[in-house]
Amino acid sequence: MANHDTLFSAPIGKLGDWTFDERVAEVFPDMIQRSVPGYSNIISMIGMLAERFVQPDSRVYDLGCSLGAATLSMRRNIKVTGCEIIAVDNSPAMVERCRRHIDAFRADTPVSIIEADILDIELNNASMVVLNFTLQFLQPDDRQRLLNQVYQGMRPGAALVLSEKFSFEDNNVGELLYSMHHDFKRANGYSELEISQKRSMLENVMLTDSVEVHKARLKHAGFEHAEVWFQCFNFGSLVAVKAGEAK
Ligand SMILES: C[S@@+](CC[C@H](N)C(=O)[O-])C[C@H]1O[C@@H](n2cnc3c(N)ncnc32)[C@H](O)[C@@H]1O
Ligand SMILES: O=C(O)C(=O)C[C@]1(C(=O)O)C=C[C@@H](O)C=C1
């Protein structure tokens, strides 16, 4: 049973900026499940995408892996040989728990867990890359550079899965979906205080983009094909494919 997230249930005197520290890592499975509508569907479907896209003798990257949920889902579904999964996160608390988590399951595909900034990782020979709710935590100025690096490190026919909290160009729709997300959190047992304290901690750290901005960035990076494949309220996921024949 995952530890229950009560981190923000009591009033906090001085709300600092959000970090992925020990306390967050400890309750993370419960927190993300109760905070991100569709999270477990996305994790399962990343496994299905891995079955389709991962090529023999290639690399698979999970960038901002947290506790390794997407890595485990991909590893369970990779049917080809000679692959390696590289899971990267810059939070020591996440990386330490991720190592334990991955070691608890057996599988043929090896996993390397690296504690690093994803901007410093040189990708190569990738047939699949996952950014599952990670890009939103990079400085907006760094986002294009990262996507360029991802595209450059991919083989023809490779896929990027980019999941994010979205903002919307239409204010009416934006407010509706934002408020549906608020309802979703309430329905999952979070109080008004918990919701508002977390929201103000995330305010300076998690700057969201619209689907249009994501698509423009992906196109600029070189991706010939990109589309939203999942959305629930203001959370969703795009798949972007590099043109060419998979070998
Ligand atoms: C919302 S969580 C990702 C959830 C995870 N991908 C999953 O599917 O369960 C965001 C993660 O990105 C990591 N992160 C944020 N910025 C990073 C960076 N520049 N380099 C590496 N990891 C980063 C955080 O430490 C955190 O673990
Ligand atoms: O927007 C919110 O309220 C969230 O809780 C979102 C979000 C995310 O999208 O990564 C933020 C931090 C936690 O890691 C879990 C969920």
UniProtKB/TrEMBL annotation:
A Pfam cross-reference name: Methyltransf_25
Top EC class of this enzyme: transferase
Matching InterPro entries: CmoA, Methyltransf_25, SAM-dependent_MTases_sf
EC number: 2.1.3.-
Record keywords, A-Z: S-adenosyl-L-methionine, Transferase
UniProt catalytic activity: prephenate + S-adenosyl-L-methionine = carboxy-S-adenosyl-L-methionine + 3-phenylpyruvate + H2O
Binding-site positions, S-adenosyl-L-methionine: Y39, G64, C65, S66, D89, N90, D117, I118, N132, R199
Domain Methyltransferase: 60-157
Reported function: Catalyzes the conversion of S-adenosyl-L-methionine (SAM) to carboxy-S-adenosyl-L-methionine (Cx-SAM).
Family: Belongs to the class I-like SAM-binding methyltransferase superfamily. Cx-SAM synthase family.
HAMAP family, A to Z: Cx_SAM_synthase (MF_01589)
NCBIfam families in the record: carboxy-S-adenosyl-L-methionine synthase CmoA (TIGR00740), PRK15451.1 (NF011995)
Assembly description: Homodimer.
Protein name (Swiss-Prot/TrEMBL): Carboxy-S-adenosyl-L-methionine synthase
